[in-house]
Structure formats: structure tokens, C-alpha cells
Amino acid sequence: MPTTDEPLIKTINIAAPCEYVFDFIVQPGNMVRWIGVDAYLDPKPGGVVRIDPNGRDVIRGVVLEIVRPTRIAFTWD
């Protein structure tokens, strides 16, 4: 199990072009189709990430890196 000092890396393989999936994920309206009931994402380094997964809890983070169309890294707290 990762400690707080180790990153959690999740890889998901989707049978679609990278550009399509990337653009889908970084749009908040689409992100809620994947996870949560509400989401805000400012897709740039230093941008805010806020995901409400269940109407009760809120996940907050900051975009660390964004490399279209292959990578978005953000904190999750």
C-alpha cells in the first residue's frame, strides 16, 4: 500500500484514440460521466481540480502536469 510520500499511479486502457479520451477527461461536464456528481477542472499546471464523487465528499487537488494527449497528473486530497 502506498504511503503519503509515494505517488498512486492508475493506468486505464481504453479502445479509443488518445486525443479523444484526453479531451473527454479534461472537460468537467464529461468528467462527471466518468466519476462523481460534480467536477471542476482547470486543465493547466497549477489549475484547480475539484471532484464531488457522491454529493457528500469533495476531492481537491492541483494539476501538476498536462501533456496533451497522453498525460494529466494532479494531486488528490
Provide structural commentary:
The structure is a single chain. It is built from two helices and four strands. It has 77 residues and is of the alpha+beta class. Strands 1-2-3-4 form a four-stranded antiparallel beta sheet. Strand 3 and strand 4 form a beta hairpin. The longest helix is centred in the first third of the chain and has 8 residues, at 18-25.
Which labels suit this protein?
77 residues; alpha+beta; four-stranded antiparallel β-sheet; 2 helices; 4 strands; 19% helix; globular
Shape: globular
Sheet with the most strands, sense and barrel status: 4 strands, antiparallel
In total, how many domains does the architecture comprise? 1
Unreliable stretches (pLDDT < 50, length at least 5) are none
Distance between the termini: 17 Å
Radius of gyration: 13 Å
H/E topology pattern? HHEEEE
Average pLDDT, all residues: 87
Query: Which class do the helix and strand fractions yield?
Result: alpha+beta
SS strand fraction: 25-35%
* Helicity, as a percent range: 10-25%
Number of strands: 4
Provide a count of the helices.
2
Instruction: Record the strand order, biggest sheet.
Output: 1-2-3-4
